[in-house]
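Sanity check

After download, print the first record. It should look like this:
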Amino acid sequence: MKKPTPWGSEEFGLRRIDMSRFFPPRKPTGGGDGSAAADRPRLAPVAAAMVDAQLPRAGEAIYRPQGHGWGRCGAMILGGGKDKVVGVDGEYRSFLLILYKCGAHAVRLLPHMRATKRCPIAFTVGDGVYVMEAAAPEPARMRGAEHCFAALVHGLPPAPPRGGATIIEDWHWRSLTAPPYVLAPDGDDGPARVAAHAVVRDSQIWVSTERPGTFTFDTASGAWSKAGDWALPFRGRAEHVPEHSLWFGFSPHHDGHLCASDLTATPPSLRHTWRYRPPHKDWPAPVASYLVPLGGGRLCVAELFETTRVEVGGRPLDTNKKASLKTTTRRWGFNAAATAGEEEEEETEVRERFAVVTGVEVEASASGKAPLRMARRAVSLYVLSTETVVTREARRRSSWRRGRPRKDDDETLHWVF
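Expected structure tokens:
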């Protein structure tokens, strides 16, 4: 969650959401053949309703420095233990945040990155983190394309330290060979943006660009190769779910849908597509979407939304109609002249940022022949921030007309909306 601080910087809060409550236990039905698949009840076809929830208290916070450059501030998980977080501050600085289950935390400073990343994507392979620039590199800002791909690894440094210091194993950033579509792009438009990516066989990084083509990087040999002119059937990151031997990700063609594919086949094709979020007429497309595998065929879908609405006098404004003016008329008698005044109410623009977290579960049939089933188990909405901006201040306009009231007329006040 990002929010401004009193001293002008930005704060990124790190919060832990307990996903166990998104998956209430299902009672065994019994009467089967004794297997777990037979005794376990099937997923209910009825989707769970969305409920409002409150974010847990932030345990840690990352502060972005003032006067930062054009790099992006963010964090990524290091290793499979889920207890180490690597953070970058939008410049060249990085750090390692170590989280302990007992509640004690530690921060370890890391060496500087060779270049900032304005749109980074991270891959966790083994105990290392690989960071790649998803946007087309700009050499004037990135010191050339040779630093658009780097890895944070633990081991001996690539170059001996200065001054004859003792060489020890430690964390360091290592620049890797840039992808072929960056060094030798096809066409006259330059390098293409990354459209989909995944980790395959626990040692290969697969990347598909907006133009047709998928490239693979072998972390053991450090070499790039082109897999083919086809594209991964996903949008953004695809995650491996070993329980079903498939990769799951967001559909590139349908909003609010997840899809699954077997990336061991060449070229990969879609196996399944499910809707996990019903359409909402007042919601735009999500700003960002994340898919996190939880094990056991369970997945967490986290989406960030930004909405803007206009209010007049604290009431929602219908965009198809003009704002009505509240008119105050002072009138003496029925035939006498009047003094009229029009008051324009305050117009505000309300910008709201919220996150929708959905717990979905994928289940195979007992025989394994029927298609996989996906069900929404729970959906929670978390309001991240609400900002109100005054776009038009309230003011009063008066128009005077000739005429004087008679002494025997009473003054009446009428409100016209």
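If your output differs, re-run the checksum step. Summary of this record's structure: The longest helix spans residues 36-39.
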